[in-house]
Write a structure and sequence with these properties.
4 domains; 5-stranded antiparallel beta sheet; alpha+beta; Immunoglobulin-like; 6-stranded antiparallel beta sheet
Length: 406
């Protein structure tokens, strides 16, 4: 069953919250954003401030009179970001349609505070940076063509007790992605990679800029961008709200599973391996066996496949959509085969080795927009989509060559 009284009640409560959030947005159709930036303390204009739409290719700097214009913005919901030295970052949600939007922005002066100083050796920093690149940029073929221009803006620290790498930056981390043809500017607020749970979490602001190139180079970039787009989460969400799952190559199933009670918690396994690895061979072999045990059991796909209507809801707010389901969502992309073996990813014996991802809700719903971008309540991805890091990241306004994203 895909519904229950308690499940429906939880979803309804989130819909009420979503409506309340939506009241703060402009529902008019708009495509040009104009504005002026001033200081809230003095009302003086703020020139040369960075103004951009998060995760998109639209960005500029304020003029000497504090004004700015962003033109030709694709419809959808965006976070408008204003950032400049000496002021708190400004964020406003913008719902873009076909007409103009005008915003007046007052920046709050930043109270300068002493940051905690983390002292590490150069060797430790380099080791931490190598792990950061692997976990943040990725290890795909595209990652080989990514170069960090200013690595030292990163504050990196490794917490041995929890086996967690943490990172942040006060200014844009600049990455040249020569595989996709973008200069990616990422304002990394926080980042953590846990070696025990094998989970990666980060938040921040990102602006994409096109790299200069010859016509042949740009065509090569376009081909690689399309390759990164098709089968991605962005492609899936766009296909879902247009009710084009099968046409685009997606098949979705209700998926249920249970944690294996015979497998100890991952943290305990890693603790025991660390304790016994160099001193007790038999104990090490025992705990390696526990580590190799499947995380899940009683895994089951409910057939036939689900339709878009079974998991999609349309809230009152224009341009937004809601994904919701009671268990897990099993997403298969039938136009590509998976090249990596994911240990804990369930595959039925009669299913071809297509790219497959599992979506776990961390809240009762996921809210996304027409660009295929999750704007609230981000879920957890396993399988193919878990590989999609910065090296394969595309702007939210990206359109594939055949226009399938329209």
């Amino acid at each position: 069953m895909l519904s229950s009284p308690l499940y429906r009640l939880a979803v309804c409560r989130w819909f009420v919250l979503l409506v309340c959030i939506g009241w703060g947005f402009s529902a008019d159709a708009q495509s040009v954003i104009n504005g002026k930036v001033v200081s809230s303390a003095s009302n003086e204009v703020v020139p040369k401030a960075s103004v951009f739409l998060n995760n998109a290719t639209f960005g500029t700097a304020t003029n000497d009179d504090g004004t700015f214009t962003l033109r030709g913005v694709k419809p959808g919901q965006y976070d408008l970001i204003v950032s400049t030295l000496g002021y708190e970052e400004y964020t406003q949600k913008i719902q873009v349609g076909q007409g103009p939007i005008t915003v007046n922005i007052a920046l709050t002066p930043k109270v300068m505070m002493m940051r905690e100083v983390v002292i590490t050796s150069n060797a430790d920093w380099k080791k931490n940076f190598e792990q950061f690149k692997k976990d943040f940029i990725g290890v795909t073929d595209n990652a080989k063509y990514c170069k960090v221009e200013n690595p030292r803006v990163l504050s990196l620290s490794f917490i041995r007790k929890t086996q967690t790498l943490e990172a942040s930056s006060d200014e844009f981390l600049v990455v040249n992605n020569d595989a996709l043809g973008y200069k990616v500017k990422f304002l990394l607020r926080d980042f953590s990679s846990n070696n025990i749970t094998r989970t990666i979490n980060y938040s921040g602001r990102v602006l994409f800029e096109e790299l200069p190139g010859t016509a042949a180079q740009k065509q090569k970039w376009k081909t690689r961008r399309d390759e990164a787009y098709y089968g991605s989460a962005q492609h899936f969400y766009r296909s879902l709200y247009k009710n084009r799952l099968s046409q685009e190559g997606f098949v979705i199933y209700d998926f249920s599973r249970t944690l294996d009670p015979n497998r100890p918690p991952e943290a305990l396994i890693q603790k025991k391996l660390k304790a016994f690895r160099m001193v007790n061979r038999d104990s090490t072999i025992y705990w390696l066996g526990k580590e190799d045990m499947p995380k899940w059991y009683q895994e089951h796909l409910t057939k036939p496949p689900l339709t878009a209507y079974a998991v999609l809801r349309k809230p009152p707010q224009e341009g937004l959509f809601v994904l919701t389901f009671p268990n897990y969502l099993y997403v298969v992309y039938t136009k590509k085969h998976e090249t990596e073996d994911f240990k804990d990813l369930y595959r039925p014996l009669d299913m071809e080795n297509f790219e497959t991802s599992v979506i776990t809700l961390l809240a009762p719903i996921v809210v996304f927009d027409m660009n295929g971008t999750v704007v609230a309540d981000s879920p957890l991805y396993e399988g193919t989509w878990s590989k999609a890091k910065l090296a394969n990241l595309l702007p939210v306004d990206y359109e594939p060559s055949d226009g399938a994203g329209n």
